[in-house]
Amino acid sequence: MSVSPDSVKIAPYHPDNQTSRHDYAVMYSNIEKMDQQFQQLLNDLEKSDRANNTIVFFYSDNGGPLPRAKRELMDSGTRVPFMIRFPDRQLKGITTEDMNMFVDIPATILSLAHINPPANMHGKAMYGDYKTKEIRKYVFGATDRFDEQIEKRGSIRTDRYLYIRNYMPKQSVYRPVKFRLAMPMMRNMIELKRQDKLTHEQMLWFDENQPEELLFDCQNDPHQVNNLSVKREYQPVLIKMRKAYQKEWIKNYNQEWEKYPEEYFVNQMWPNGKSPEAELPAIKIKKGKLRG
Asked: pLDDT at position 35, please?
């Protein structure tokens, strides 16, 4: 490992012990190694004749390998690194606080290629000829199946508040997914839970009596461990976020998702449990150009 376990900062929803510090250090060491490999790719690009007409996008999958990360709707599971490298170092060093989503990436690529994204695209172009003037007020998230486990939650986030709607409140947010159970840190947390040695913040993820609604102030509570939905002084914010969730997310995009269980959608994709076979693409080359 290139990162020392003693140097890492442990989130309050994880136990601060040797096992956690080791897994954190492995993760950060892997990130350092990834950065080195990516730098080598950029160096190779610079040596080629394509550097001056290549735009590089760098981002990760949602969440990370640690418990309460991947597939979770808190920032620990939804925030990802994202960088764009333009030719000739255009916009070098500029950062933005705008909120964006994965669906914005295809629209941005089209815009940078001088193509107007079609109206039925959900994404908003971040750069290019057709950069969207409207700044997002909200970003959305959802989780309905985690490998072999079924769950159902949706979220809407502003630059300050995160609202989560839980459709399965009688089960814990933690799901015993096989790949997580292979992690030393996950097994350690389960053992500490059995011994009743987890803190309140660490037990929230395991609580089998989850609220139907959660509200977090992400500025004052960056780890999202203090649910404000039950506090009287935050009821105006809760009502506003609830209405925005229904209007901006469910009504516009996910009416069926809210209405039907996950089994319905699995059957839509795999009728009678059988995977449909896609037709082979028809491809033609005309005047040196690929045609579909």
From this structure: 95
